[in-house]
Amino acid sequence: MAAxxxxxxxxxxxxxxxxxxxxxxxxxxxxxAFDFERGADTSERAGPLRAAQAGLISPAALRAATLATFxxxxxxxxxxxxxxxxPIAVFGLLALLAGYAYTGGPVPLGYRGFGDPLVFLFxxxxxxxxxxxxxxxxxxxxxxxAAVPIGLLATALIAVNNLRDIETDRRANKRTLAVxxxxxGARRYYALLLAGSYLALPGLWWLGAPAACAWLxxxxxxxxxxxxxxxxxxxxxxxxxxxxxxxxxxxxFAALLAGGFIL
Length: 263
Description:
globular; mainly alpha
C-alpha cells in the first residue's frame, strides 16, 4: 500500500518486521515456559514440540530468552517511535505486555479466552496499520480496512490451534474461546473467520483501493475451501496440517492483496 502511494521506505518497513518477529519469538518463548508450568503442556500434547515440556530447555532459561528478545524489540522500537510518534509507542508497549501476559502473570489472558481478539489486534490492526504509518507518517483508513482480512486470517491460526488443543486445555482450566464454544462451535468459528476475510475485500475497493485488491485474493479461495473441509472432520494432531495450511493461506492471501495494490 505504501508503495502504491509512492511512500515506501525500506528501513522503517524492515525495522517494523524485525520488531514484530522479535515480539513473536519472545511470546513463543514465554508461552513455552508458562504453559508447561501451568500444566497445559503435557505428554498428551498434540501440537508441535515444546522445549520445556520435552525437557530440552528449562522454564527459567525460556523466561530469560523472553526478556532478551523483548529488549531487542524495544531497542528497534525506539527508532520506530522516532518515526511514527506516540501511537507507535503505545501499541509497541501494549504488544510487549500482551506477549508476556498472554500466558504469564497473575491473570493470563489466553487462559481467559482473550487470545483471539489480541491476535486480531496485534497481528492485524497494528501489524498492517503500524507498518504503513512508520513509512508514510500519516493515518490511513484504508490501512485499517486492509488490516481486517489479515487480522481475521491470523485469528484463524489461533482458532485452529485451540481447536486442536481443546481437550488438554479444558483439563488445564485454560478457557480458550474454543473451549468455551465446544468442538462444533469452534469449527463454525474457524469457518466464519475464513469467510470474513473474503467478505472484507469489497470494503477496500469502496475506500479507494484498486479494484484488483477486491478480486485478486480470491485466487486463494480454493486453499480456504480445502482447509474448511479438513477442519470439519479432523481433530487432535491431524489439525497440525490445517494449522500449517492456514499460515500458508494467510501468506498467499497477503501476497495477492499486496499485488492488488501494486497493480
